Amino acid sequence: MGNILSRIQDIASNEGITIGALERCIGASKGVLSRAINNGTDIQSKWISILVENYPQYSPAWLLTGEGNMLRVESEKEVKLPSVNQTYEGTPYFNVDFIGGFDVIVNDQTRNPDFYINYPPYNQEGVVWCNLTGHSMEPEISNGDIIALREVTTPIQYLPAGEIYGIVTEEYRTVKRVRLSQKEGYVRLIPSNKSEEFCEQEIPISMILKVYAVLGSIRKFF
User: Fold this and answer.
1) How many helices (H) and strands (E) does the chain have?
2) Domain 84-218 has what CATH class?
3) Which of 37-41, 57-61, 70-74, 123-127 has the lowest mean pLDDT?
4) What is the mean pLDDT of residues 171-181?
């Protein structure tokens, strides 16, 4: 999936202009984009909206998620950017971190969502949004992204291998790419980040209490 900043660089490259020129085109002060790219920090959501308005040939869905084609085709329908509301449109968002106990919060019948995110690709029954911190899944999922999750009840050994899942055990919660281990009764938890500080783990399937499919992620835009 990469991240939005790298896709903004792709747009500038495709247009044959520098990041500085792109900043001027969207009315941003010098350094708004370049500093964020160099430092790996967030940009305000308004610049993403202005970028989409000024460069309508690029797919908003691709810009936000990295999925699909970079360029929109003539027949492509208008893609709606994600928005937040309190009127039950879309799917619920809980302002909690997955690693910090999301599963406890979402299963608490007394806890209401903080609001709803209306984003058509993920407006599906059973989908919920929450925060994710940490760097182990970069560049696919960045620190501070929000992720769309849906609980799955199929035993993990029968789920599609190599996909990204949220794993809950008695001791911890983590988001990793999951594959079966050669050791019977175990699965491998594989980080995307190739840095030496992030290593693959093998855990017994019997430790796993819940599994959530990670359907996608976007940068926090609110």
Assistant:
1) 6, 10
2) mainly beta
3) 70-74
4) 93
Average pLDDT, the chain: 86
E strands, the chain, are 83-85, 91-97, 115-118, 127-131, 146-152, 164-169, 173-180, 186-190, 201-204, 208-218
Q: In this structure, which CATH number among 3.30.1310, 1.20.1270, 2.60.120, 1.10.260 belongs to the domain 4-65?
A: 1.10.260
pTM of the model: 0.65
User: 7 vs 64, 138, 153, 167, CA distance in Å?
Assistant: 9, 15, 35, 29
Residue with tokens 């849906």: 150
Domain boundaries, the chain: 4-65, 84-218
